[in-house]
């Protein structure tokens, strides 16, 4: 019988031609117990917080390497895929929904489109999906909210000097807002700024 026809475990052969110890074939894939663990791990994680596909995949992969000693990387990948598939079937893993919810939340906390794009990319959301999600994100609203949180511009409690104006413009720039938008918001009066935000709340 040729080697290609032999279904038995592989046997090592010593240099002198004598048979050595039998080496069992590696398993073809993760065991049912491992796959069940992957699904349970996914269920636990997605019950705690919103996650992207990459976040869940990375988390399950890390845990699999810790839990299953000497697990092959291809098995790690299969367990991660099983976890993500479970999350999708449960309706809990949806990058488009994640991006939409996070964008709305981050805009409402005063984050610029640029900062939101960076945070979504860090979580594994694709560039095309990020661009689609940010189409309706309003940097003006976010900039006014940022100003209100920092008591800048129309929300100042004291009259600004040149040093404070420079500080406020720099803070806007560090948070991803354009210089033109920063100047526009800083020149608003309080009633105008609050009316802009009131209009935003009517649309939500």
The profile of the biggest β sheet is:
2 strands, antiparallel
Structural shape:
elongated
Strand coverage percent: under 5%
Sketch the topology as an H/E string, one letter per element: EEHHHHHHHHHH
How many domains would you count in the coordinates?
Answer: 3
The percent of residues in helical segments reads 55-70%
Mean pLDDT: 88
Q: Strands across the major sheet, in which order?
A: 1-2
Tally of helical segments = 10
Low-confidence stretches: 1-14
Fold and architecture overview:
- There is one protein chain.
- Strands 1-2 form a two-stranded antiparallel ribbon.
- The protein has three domains: 32-89; 94-136; 138-204, no CATH class.
- The protein is elongated, with a radius of gyration of 28 Å.
- It is built from ten helices and two strands.
- The protein is 62% helix and 4% strand.
- With 204 residues, the chain is mainly alpha-helical.
- α2 packs across α3 and α7 crosses α9.
- Mean pLDDT is 88; it is low at 1-14.
């Amino acid at each position: 019988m040729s080697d290609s026809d032999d279904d038995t475990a592989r046997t090592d052969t010593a240099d002198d031609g004598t048979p050595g110890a039998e080496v069992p074939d590696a398993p073809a894939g993760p065991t049912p117990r491992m796959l069940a663990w992957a699904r349970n791990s996914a269920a636990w994680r997605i019950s705690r917080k919103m996650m992207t596909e990459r976040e869940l995949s990375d988390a399950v992969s890390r845990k699999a390497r810790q839990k299953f000693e000497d697990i092959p990387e291809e098995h790690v990948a299969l367990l991660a895929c099983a976890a993500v598939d479970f999350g999708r079937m449960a309706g809990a893993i949806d990058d488009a929904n994640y991006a939409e919810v996070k964008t709305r939340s981050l805009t409402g906390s005063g984050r610029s489109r640029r900062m939101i794009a960076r945070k979504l990319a860090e979580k594994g959301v694709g560039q095309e999906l990020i661009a689609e999600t940010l189409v309706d994100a309003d940097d003006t609203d976010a900039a006014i909210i940022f100003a209100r949180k920092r008591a800048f511009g129309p929300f100042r409690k004291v009259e600004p000097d040149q040093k404070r104006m420079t500080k406020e413009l720099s803070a806007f720039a560090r948070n991803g807002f354009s210089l033109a938008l920063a100047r526009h918001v800083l020149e608003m009066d309080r009633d105008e700024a609050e009316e802009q935000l009131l209009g935003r709340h009517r649309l939500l």
